[in-house]
Amino acid sequence: MKETKRDGLILKPADSADMELLFRWVNDDRVRENAFHKEEISFEEHQKWFFDLLRDKRQNQYILYQDREPVGQIRLYICGGVAEIDYSIAPEKREQGYGRMLIGMIQNKI
Questions:
Q1: Do 46 and 28 meet the contact criterion of CB atoms below 8 Å apart?
Q2: How many CB atoms lie within 10 A of CB 33?
Q3: What is the pLDDT of residues 38-67, one digit of tens each?
Q4: Is 0.90 surpassed by the pTM of this model?
């Protein structure tokens, strides 16, 4: 996986350094409210999930940065030529168009 750049934004593949950032985002109230499973996720559950994700060749996790600041995440689960997409934007960056930018940038990865 390579990083993608566009208009000052960088979409980088996630690595082990991103685990705590994604943990904070996944337990954001709005994220939990819109998730299939509404319960808060423990750090232990998240850690296991995250390292399984990094080993799974069917899944690709990316972090979107603007000026070195993380603004969102997107994950692709690819099976049979179809990609299921999961994404979220950092609470302080919502309502600024990052979701559209993130979806636009990931299209180059599919």
A1: no
A2: 8
A3: 899 999 999 999 999 999 999 999 999 998
A4: no
